[in-house]
Amino acid sequence: MEILSLNQISPDQVILWQWGIIRITATLMYTWFIMALLVMGSWLVTRRLSSDVRTTRWQGVLEVVVSTIRNQIKEINPEDPGHYLAFIGSLFLFVGLSNVLLIVPGYVAPTSSLTTTAALAVCVFIAVPLYGITKQGILSYFKEYFQPTFIFFPFHVMGEVTRTLALAVRLFGNMMSHDKVIAILLAVTPLFFPIVMHALGLLIGLVQAYIFAILAMVYIASATQAHEEKTEK
Amino acid sequence: MHIDWFVFFAQIVNFLILVFLLKYLLYGRIIKAMDDRQTKLASQFDEAQRLRKEAEDAAIAYDKKNQSLENMVEDMLNKAREAAEQTRRELEAQARQEVDLVQQRWYETLNLEKKSFLENLRRRSGAYVYDAVRRILIDLADGGLEQRIVTVFMERIRQADEGQVSLLRESAAIETGIVIRSSFELSPAQRTLLEEVLAPYTADGIPITYEVSPVLVAGIEMMVHGHKFSWSINDYIDSLQERFSHMLKEEIPSLPGT
Lengths: 233, 258
Description:
heterodimer, A: about 230 residues, mainly alpha, two-stranded antiparallel ribbon, about 5% strand, B: about 260 residues, alpha+beta, four-stranded mixed sheet, about 75% helix, about 10% strand
């Protein structure tokens, strides 16, 4: 069963249920599926956590994942990685799992919807000043937009907007195009080659998730560390 | 490429819910478990370090104790060796004393045996010589050996020097009597001859007592107030004994107490 036909660019176009402006699209359905998978998996594993040396395999897997994310955050921002772990980690896990599940037949990645990637990018767009203000204070943070002179204010704003846009479009473009390439290849050469492309898709999906999360962290770090570098000087 | 704004806001809300849920269900719990494990491992490591330190201290104390025990054992062994050496010396000295005592007794016994042997030898030699001489004298002379002994004894009294004569006179003047001992029973004729020889030196009425003494072996002697005039084969036997004794000394030169 094909939920998304080849001529449909985004899963937003697949409306499963609608009542007024409220529409349950394939994007939302798969998003909830991913969310349920993550939440239920986390709950199942973490309900019986052990602080001993001997742990369950799933706990070991989650510890590796969490500690790897934390180490990556620490490499960008050595100060208090736990502060950003929930946001950055959730970004990586959601985008990564959405992309990896592409190998499941009939699945459509929510990240192949511009709406989803735009929503995530907006979350990053909002999170950056929130973390910056929390760290530096509102005046100090907004003063950065006028550095070195007030003339740079529009450029700073444009930079923020464009990088958010780039963040959304990069993920959407990659995932959507990959989704379409796979569909076209299945139609043209149904044997062998789509499998290779699926394997490549796993790599692309994880790389895109990594890039999305790392860029978000870089933006947040740039907003928080600019003040710190000043105070150090 | 259009954006569904309802879905857009719904996705933002969804993501915020996901962040909240994962923060509560995943990150918080996992980080806490990891921190707890790290704390536990750190405490176990500290405990292990403490136990290791205690073990090292105990090992050092044990080594010191062992060393002191070894020293103590060495001291005890040295003392035991000294005591054993002292006991050995004492026992050796005691054994030497006992050996010396036994040797001394052995020497005394040997001397007694030697003396007894010589005495026996002297007697037997005297007896043999007396017997041989008597038989020789009997064979060569017409009288017995006793007669010859009496004759020789009388000849000695006659040939006595001035000192002996005066001594005989002085002694005989005292009325204590004269005792004549002989190894054989003097016959009445021999007694008469002796009294005639003594008559010039003695006063009348002086009693003359005759006794037989086998100790003399072959001889005769006269006791006058403590002075003795004698001839006996004992003299020759004494000479023989002296030579014998000398020969024995040569044979047993290292005998102490001889």
